[in-house]
Amino acid sequence: MSNNQSKIALVTGGSRGLGKDSALQLAKKGFDLIITYQTKKEAADEVVKEIENIGQKAYALPLDISSTAGFDQFVTEVKHILDTQFASGKLDALVNNAGIGINQSFETTTEETLDAMTNIHFKGPYFLTQKLLPLLNDGSSVVNTSSGLARFSFAGYSAYGAMKAAIDSLSRYQALELGSRKIRVNSIAPGAIETDFGGGAVRDSKEYNQLVSSQTALGRVGLPDDIGSVVAFLCSDDSKWINAQRIEVAGGFRI
């Protein structure tokens, strides 16, 4: 790193699951971290401790990605942390990871559910990134979180999968329009992962786990540390010529 100064990454939803692993892998690559959590402050504080044990700085801030009403205040808080806790007043990477999974059939999906999926998975990342632009260094990397479900289809994920397809498209538009600032934008599309996501179905249901494994070239479902290292790679200069790409990290599912 130039002047022995750590780069700084912001990871939304960094208190657990893929966000947590991404934050830890970024710390191992020499990044300082700001992570967000929605309600699990204690879990976020534990992640901060783990990052500090790796030897990097870390801070946790609350953020409700589903409501843009709090974004201006959040950006002010991020700016305050950058100005007071870090030598550099800008971010070098933004990982839009926060999200939830809702499994409902197309037939029974309500307008309320669709609005929630839109706000959390599309509108939230769209405007959070827009509002953070002044705090991103030129040459930064933005990683948006898509899903394998934007390519293949599982019953019950019409709202979620459609939003993730929108994220893939948005990432290309962002890459085009932010290219003048040398900001790269890519989306990462995990397959089925053993976390508490979506009620922990992949982790806890042996039948579901075996179904996914049987259709995956590498013969198993994913684990959080299959994903975090790829996010860290996309945030680093190791991937400096990768831009506007959708990278599926699913072990070869339904290929």
Written account of the structure:
Strand 2, helix 2 (41-54) and strand 3 (58-62) form a beta-alpha-beta unit. The chain has 255 residues and is of the alpha/beta class. The protein has one domain: NAD(P)-binding Rossmann-like Domain (Rossmann fold). 43% of the residues lie in helices and 17% in strands. The model has no long low-confidence stretch (mean pLDDT 94). 42% of the residues are buried. The protein is built from eight helices and seven strands. Strands 3-2-1-4-5-6-7 form a seven-stranded parallel β-sheet, with helices on both faces. The longest helix is centred in the middle third of the chain and has 22 residues, at 111-132. The radius of gyration is 17 Å and the shape is globular. Helix 1 runs parallel beside helix 2 (41-54) and helix 4 (111-132) runs parallel beside helix 5.
The general outline is globular
Q: What is the CATH-assigned architecture? A: 3-Layer(aba) Sandwich
Mean pLDDT: 94
Strand order of the largest sheet: 3-2-1-4-5-6-7
| Main pleated sheet | 7 strands, parallel
Helix fraction by DSSP (H/I, runs of at least 4) = 40-55%
Write down the domain tally.
Answer: 1
Q: For the terminal residues, how far apart are their CA atoms? A: 38 Å
- Assess the beta-strand content as a share of residues: 15-25%
What is the count of β-strands?
7
Give the class from helix and strand content and strand pairing: alpha/beta
SSE topology string = EHEHEHEHEHEHHHE
CATH T-level topology: Rossmann fold
Output the CATH homologous superfamily.
Answer: NAD(P)-binding Rossmann-like Domain
Unreliable stretches covering 5 or more consecutive residues:
none
Over the alpha carbons, how many angstroms does the gyration radius reach?
17 Å
CATH class: Alpha Beta
